């Protein structure tokens, strides 16, 4: 098993090797609930911690969290942010079934349908504005 983990070093997988963490549970208590918290993720190329934290954001008192990601290779981070952006898209645009089909097509296809390519271009443009702002 150890040899398999060593061979996998440097690869990125969506689910990781450990359970996802809700980052808000590991923040120090703040006397002011409106205070912003900063979190640094080092080598977190997959988005499972971000997704779980976002999914549980409505539990408890609202708290603003700014995430900083330090990663040697920015491409996996951009890919995971793109998938998170597509997953969290407005439910009306596109329909959930079409969005799920597009995500599956992006994960496992070499060629994209025109509608999926259009969705990808729009999401990539929004992601570019988020990252460069």
Automatic annotation (TrEMBL):
User: Which domain of life does this protein belong to?
Assistant: Eukaryota
Against InterPro entries, the record matches this protein to:
DNAAF3, DUF4470
Report the record's Gene Ontology biological process terms.
axonemal dynein complex assembly; motile cilium assembly
Q: Name one Pfam family in it.
A: DUF4470
Enumerate the spans annotated as DUF4470 domain.
Answer: 14-109
Protein name stated in the entry: DAAF3 factor
Q: Which organism is it from?
A: Erithacus rubecula (European robin)
Gene encoding this polypeptide? Dnaaf3
């Amino acid at each position: 098993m150890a040899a398999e983990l060593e061979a996998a070093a440097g690869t990125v997988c969506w689910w990781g090797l450990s359970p996802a963490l809700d980052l808000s549970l590991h923040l120090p208590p703040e006397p002011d609930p409106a205070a912003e918290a900063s979190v640094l993720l080092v080598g977190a190329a997959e988005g499972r911690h971000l997704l779980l934290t976002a999914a549980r954001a409505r539990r408890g008192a609202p708290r603003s969290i700014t995430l900083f990601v330090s990663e040697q290779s920015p491409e996996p981070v951009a890919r995971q942010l793109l998938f998170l952006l597509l997953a969290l898209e407005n439910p009306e645009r596109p329909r959930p079934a079409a969005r799920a089909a597009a995500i599956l097509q992006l994960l496992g296809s070499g060629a994209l349908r025109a509608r999926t390519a259009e969705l990808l271009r729009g999401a990539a443009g929004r992601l570019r504005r988020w990252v460069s702002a």
